[in-house]
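[Automated response] Your request has been received and processed.

Submitted sequence:
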Amino acid sequence: MTFGRLSAEKEVKVPASETWKLYGTLQLAKVVEEALPGLLSKIDVIQGDGGVGTVLELFLPPGNEGAMKSYKEKFTMVDNEKRVKETEVVEGGYLDVGFSLYRVRFEIIEKEGIENECITRVNIEYELKEEVAANAAFVSIQPLVDIMQVAADYLLKNYTN
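Generated structure:
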């Protein structure tokens, strides 16, 4: 097996509690769908209300990520106290090209001593079969960096003290 991990961070000039109201709910999917049609053409809620067990189907626009057209991800952790959300691909997408695990973890971290700012951190963890190790090239942190930027812009525009 081949294992990998990528991560990125973004400072947001909005309190962690307000930022989590976006990241910890299905609102993030709505914001991403509207703001980044070149990344995801559609996001459907298959089941759930945004808590653990929620399943989303994410549709990629034509011509994106090779042969991937859509995949389903399941919320495996939504910790409102620690402000952590994890999702795993459970059908299609990365699983169809040899990955046995593709997990995304978002964390909202308070900035010590600065009440009106926080850090958003994203991690991707993946495992794939040795014989298709070259498919690790499909993994990119950039789409998630784009999502963090869109979320930051949305939060700045909509947050009022």
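Summary generated for your ticket: Residues 62 and 155 are 29 Å apart (CA to CA). The radius of gyration is 16 Å.
If you did not submit this request, please reply to this message.
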